[in-house]
Amino acid sequence: MKKIDRPLLITVATLIVVGFFIFTSASLGLLAREGAHFSSVALSQIVFGIGLGTVALLITSTIHYRFWRKYAIYFFLFSIAATLLVFVPGLGFSYGGATRWVDLGIITFQPAELLKIGFVIYLATWLSGIRDKLHTFAYGVVPLFVLIGIVGGLLLTQPDTGTLLVILVTAIAMFIAAGARWREIAIFGGMATLGVAVLAYTRPYIMDRILTFFNPASDPLGASYQIQQSLIAVGSGEWFGRGFGQSVQKFQYLPEPIGDSIFAVAAEEFGFIGSMLLVGLFLFFAFRGLTVAAHAPDYFGGLLALGIVILIVSQSFINMASMLGVLPLTGLPLVFVSHGGTALLLALASVGILLNISKFKRS
Asked: Most buried of the four, 55, 202, 217, 337, by CB within 10 Å?
């Protein structure tokens, strides 16, 4: 048995440190907003996210990755049950028009974060088990679409289209890596595209985001407000940024400066150079993670490693791209950086699984 992938661990540690400084600066913008509690937000990020997340990483990095295959179905069902708690009166609560959180009194958490990793573990288990039947329509495309339909139904009821998008991208990547042929990929892609079209037609807020993407100046005080303010922040950063803590947009202008708009704050303070360094860290994380997947000792380990990497990297790049106007707004947070104790805790737990797989990689 070999040691864990040190470059991967160092990259994650660097992302955590850099993310904490960006988060600290962005959270200062809350001081100018009524009803915002800087101390509680910082405590949640430090204790629940970084503190417990580090503990979770240490624990999952010592658990043999095949353990997750043995209990995949139970973990997946548990994640679904936890997600259903948001609909229980007295437990689930709403914010910004969405019911995505569970309040246990002492802490609040977002079960969809657990659902993401539960889905990846189960999908890796299922794909590795039907390897010989993957090319059949009945055992390949149909079950995958049903599985995503179940998860999608839960998430769209909240609604949480951003998380569903990340799960969909991850599922497609794992499906391709499992050996799906272009015919199956085209069928699944066509069904997914049709689903997105139906959602855009039936859910006005999704259509608004798509229209805003094509014409960011269409409604500067309404649907286009966030992307307008984000682009102002990014442009203000120029090459080297205003300096740490010197963002202007995080005060009153940017919606959710510690949430999905946090990359815009980073770009304003650290400029193009700083933004590219942050992008580079995520790219190197992807490179090391995919290397672990490529050298995994078995089919399940490779798919699991791939799923974890795509889950983290796709969400991060979707977030950054939406803040730059390259993709429609999704509301997704930036992994390792944005506020969210649950998200950071489970992201680090997922990295622990990835590090465990790296211990057994083939040379």
From this structure: 337
